[in-house]
Amino acid sequence: MDGLQGPQIEALQQLQSILGPHDTEFVVSVLESVSWDVQKATDLLFDNEIPKVIAPTRATPMEQLELDDNEDSSPTIRHSHRGQGSSRSNWSFLWSLLAVPLHLVSGVLRFVFNVLRIPIPSLPFMTTNSYHSHRPTSPDSRSITQRWVQQLEEETGACSAKRSMANAVTTGFEAGPSTARRHTYPPAASDDNQKILADFFDGTYEEVLDICQREGRIACVVLVSAEHDDDADFKRSTLTDAAFVKILLDNDFIVWGGDIRDKAAWDASQKLQATTYPFVAFLALQPRRHGAPSGASPVVTTLSRHQGRAATTASVLIDHLNTQLLPRVTPFLVRFKTMLQDRDRDRRIREEQDRAFRETARRDREAIEMRVRQEKEEEERVRQHAEDVKRKQEDSARQKHQAGIRMEWRKFMRNRLLLPEARGLRLAVKLPGNGRVVRSFPPSATLTALYAFVDSQLIPSTSRPEDDPSQAPDGVVNDIPQLDSYIQSRTAGHAWWGFTLASAYPRREFRWKANVSLTETGLRDGEQIVMELITGRESSNGQISDDEYESESD
Fold first, then answer.
1. How far apart are CA 283 and CA 315, in angstroms?
2. pTM beyond 0.90, yes or no
3. Of these four, 74, 470, 484, 519, which has the most CB atoms within 10 Å of its CB?
């Protein structure tokens, strides 16, 4: 150490950070053999055929984890299954040829052991992928994990907790896409002696870290090596231990594992600095340390690492969890979950407030639209009413004007067109109301003269004859024939008069016709006729829409 220079000391520290506690002289000798190249030293120690670039200045998933407790294990590098790349490749090819018959036998034995529910012994020929170079690489880490869990069930004769939870009582609340799940133990199984494995998460290692970050759960990462001598014993005694599985389920651990021969597990071992197998690590969300600001968000931290068979027995792990890890991390995780619940409650409250605000805004908008619609309807009603009033006023004014003109015609006819009484036809005319007049007409008198006399009876008694006009209100009319011509040119006949004449009994109607004498109508001397007013609605040109009459009897 005293003779090392700055770059050499930096390379030594870099390699020791990867290997963990180790003999310094051994590490220096390895670096010297590769000219102080940390990359080559790492490939040499771990027998990694795929070069892995080590860049301490670049943020990696390994740098996001903080090592919190490491006194439970002393990581060392096992070389029992490592060798030189060239000799290893030759031996792997030879072993693949020799192991083909053994693989067929192992398939039959696996089927028999599964039927009899006997744990499968860990023999070299029982595994089709005995060496890391023989493990097929798959881009789907989920399928790799599922395959490893299935192989673990076959080797231990145990059943995964998630497969035996069909009839188990579950408690807890799952919010949204959360993977948090509470179980009761023991899970319901078909056989009372059935061993139970933990509920292994079938996602990736990065997804495990994400769940720890989002949900505040503790992660248990299990890494094994099928080539290790203690691998079978660890799987059968530790991973299927009832007390160990119970504490994982009761405390809602997220369990993830794999064989380092698979790339996903190998990458996780590098990030967790695993050097001895079996390997168990516990990770959870913890506050930042090392002078981090008070408001800094918590980070997923490596709470403890357990390497080697002695440090990964069920009793050691259970004691560590009950006496050290859970009492130390539970208070913070409880506060963190409470904070998440508070955030979720606040989010729901905000959503309810937003929903109530939108509902209120909708009702207000509908009320405003209804009020605007009502105002428009009221304006339309007022406009229609005004138009109706105006139209009625115009109709009334027009009727008054027409009535005034007709009254002028009556006065004109009384002044200029009425024939003097003469011996001939004596007729009695019953007027509307109780009025009755009698007048004699010469035999040559026309129906127009009769109608003009009867029409003049509608002039008010207050109107004096000397005030009657001497000229017609419209046109040139000086005698009865001219009046006939004028009426024919203006109206449809009797509608101009506004009334009709008829005999009382038997009823005969004497409708007005131009140039028709009274004798031609069939009127007889002494006959009594009735004046019937036309009650039908008159048009603007003086015509009527129907022929309705009003007699005295009505």
1. 19
2. no
3. 484
